[in-house]
Design the sequence.
């Protein structure tokens, strides 16, 4: 693939845990293909502070979306990479609360969430 994509077709992408999703052709051209390897598989998404893979193929993940102001308070650019929950909380100087998360689909229940991510999503 190496950055070349047919934007006229849907694309199936494998996510962590072997899950596959269909990306509609309408948004294929919006995807940063540097995040994919030559087989079209999602690459590791390391925490920019500690290096922990936040979306491992096997095991629990920490894939989430917080409000833009929370991300900015942590000193992160909107497209500045990923932070594991521990590093985000260290940067913020506090634990995350449910209100910090957006209503994005990735913030719903997911059996692959790490225990700490699941606990923060459920915190009231």
Sequence:
């Amino acid at each position: 693939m190496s950055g070349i994509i047919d934007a006229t077709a849907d694309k199936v992408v494998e996510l962590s845990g072997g899950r596959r999703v269909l990306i509609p052709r309408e948004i294929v051209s919006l995807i940063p293909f540097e995040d994919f390897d030559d087989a079209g598989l999602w690459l590791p998404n390391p925490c920019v502070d500690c290096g922990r893979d936040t979306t491992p193929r096997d095991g629990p993940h920490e894939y989430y979306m917080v409000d833009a102001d929370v991300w900015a308070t942590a000193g992160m650019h909107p497209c500045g990479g990923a932070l594991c929950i521990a590093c985000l909380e260290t940067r913020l100087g506090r634990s995350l609360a449910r209100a910090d998360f957006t209503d994005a689909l990735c913030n719903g229940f997911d059996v692959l969430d790490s225990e700490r991510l699941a606990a923060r999503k459920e915190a009231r």
